[in-house]
Specification:
single chain, alpha+beta, globular
């Protein structure tokens, strides 16, 4: 039988995989956040997201990213990964950690920008230090800290790290963001 042919009755491998799990993701229209963001400084925007007056972006709903603090050039986010973020070897996929690092570094840059100024990531360099695994029934919070190392009018530079619930660094990053008026 080729891999494109259906499994014969009784030979379905999924019958041994356990119960299928589900995750529902909901979000608000991202155009609303983007429009509001143009009217505020980056710091005002992130703080408004934290206090609930601006809806969170869809990506934060997918990965459960939450802003915890925002000051000029410095932000902290948390993430509660679940097994839906596992890769094939039973660890949290590095892409989730990379996305969390990108979020923290880029949002740190965002806090330095005036109203009407946009940014986007140009480059990110990630170093993974240790794997992330979900501990059933345990605390699995990842905390990302991002800080600006050099603000700029056309390019800005930031760094970030992600720590597990025990405070151990699991990954670090350096990032360059394009700043657009």
């Amino acid at each position: 039988m080729s891999s494109s042919e259906p499994a014969a009755a009784g030979n379905d491998p999924a019958q041994h995989w356990g119960d299928q799990r589900h995750k529902t993701v909901t979000w608000y229209d991202p155009a609303t956040s983007a429009a509001l963001g143009l009217t505020m400084s980056g710091l005002e925007f992130l703080r408004a997201m934290m206090d609930g007056t601006v809806p969170p972006p869809p990506i934060s709903q997918v990965f459960d990213f939450r802003p915890v603090s925002a000051d000029v050039g410095d932000v902290v986010f948390t993430c509660e990964p679940d097994e839906s973020a596992y890769n094939p070897i039973g660890l949290v996929h590095g892409g989730l950690v990379c996305t969390l690092l990108d979020t923290a570094a880029a949002c740190a840059v965002h806090t330095t920008l005036a109203a009407g100024t946009a940014y986007t990531s140009l480059e990110i360099k990630v170093n993974y230090v240790r794997p992330v695994q979900i501990v059933p029934g345990g605390t699995n919070t990842l905390t990302a800290h991002g800080w600006v190392t050099r603000p700029g009018r056309r390019a800005a530079f930031a760094e970030a790290d992600v720590r597990d619930a025990a405070g151990r660094v699991v990954a670090t990053a350096s990032s360059t963001c394009l700043v657009m008026s």
